[in-house]
Amino acid sequence: MSTLEIRDLHVSVNTESGPKEILKGVDLTIRSGEVHAIMGPNGSGKSTLAYSIAGHPKYQVTSGTVTMDGEDLLAMSVDERARAGLFLAMQYPVEVPGVSVANFLRTAKTAIDGEAPKLRTWVKDVNGAMDRVQMDREFANRSVNEGFSGGEKKRHEVVQLELLNPRFAILDETDSGLDIDALRIVSEGVNRFSAQGDRGVLLITHYTRILRYIKPDFVHVFVNGRVAEQGGQELAERLEAEGYDKYVRAANAAATV
Length: 257
Ligand SMILES: Nc1ncnc2c1ncn2[C@@H]1O[C@H](COP(=O)(O)OP(=O)(O)OP(=O)(O)O)[C@@H](O)[C@H]1O
Ligand SMILES: [Mg+2]
Hints:
Elements: E1 3-15, E2 18-31, E3 35-39, H1 46-54, E4 59-68, E5 71-72, H2 78-84, E6 86-89, E7 96-100, H3 101-113, H4 119-132, E8 143-144, H5 150-164, E9 168-172, H6 180-194, E10 200-204, E11 218-223, E12 226-231, H7 233-242, H8 245-256
Parallel strand pairs: 3-10, 3-11, 6-9, 9-10
Antiparallel strand pairs: 1-2, 1-4, 4-5, 7-8, 11-12
The chain binds adenosine-5'-triphosphate and magnesium ion.
The site of adenosine-5'-triphosphate has 13 residues, from β1, β2 and α1.
């Protein structure tokens, strides 16, 4: 069993007028076997949190800690974090012209496992993963994400999730841009991953829709760079009905004291 622990995390980005603090003391603990959903208004820092954990160089951690089973993730390079078992599905997956999906997946798998996957089983695994998200096998020959529709990019993220099988998956709006069938297919992929029982999921989303398919153990409301409220599935329902107004006003009031 593993634990991903974020303690009092402060993160800034460089802007033309100097560093700007985006994350203002995030506390979050995810244990293997758990599904956590983060919901919050646009610009509250959800993607910043995802990128900071994964090690994007644009984000400067000014204080706080991120550990996996006590190991300091912040001291690791991006690929070390991936090898330690961290996976990030980006809100806007990057296009990589000239690198085929097949090549990309095999290279990533080799880098993470420290050895190349056996060719015979690997092809079967890739085909199976693509079939399960109803992604045409032809995609294997296309450049990574290039010209993919929004929904195709998200399905491709789930293929990666299945093949790389990390210990902790951070999924940033993996439900955005999906049609009704794709939402179910992608959700089932995430559920298969988490059904292994010893994996952790951090799901960033705007919609309670996906939470009909993926049942979170914990829901966190993220406002103004920190977790403002935590609860169970019922909190997501309440947010849907009431919106974020209450939390935004409380955060603003706290900021002006
Ligand atoms: N270079 C920058 N200069 C100024 N502000 C920045 C810069 N980079 C990021 N930000 C700000 O950081 C804040 C947090 O952005 P982030 O993408 O983490 O939000 P989010 O919660 O993921 O929003 P969304 O729900 O729209 O995806 C935003 O207000 C954004 O404008
Ligand atoms: Mg975002």
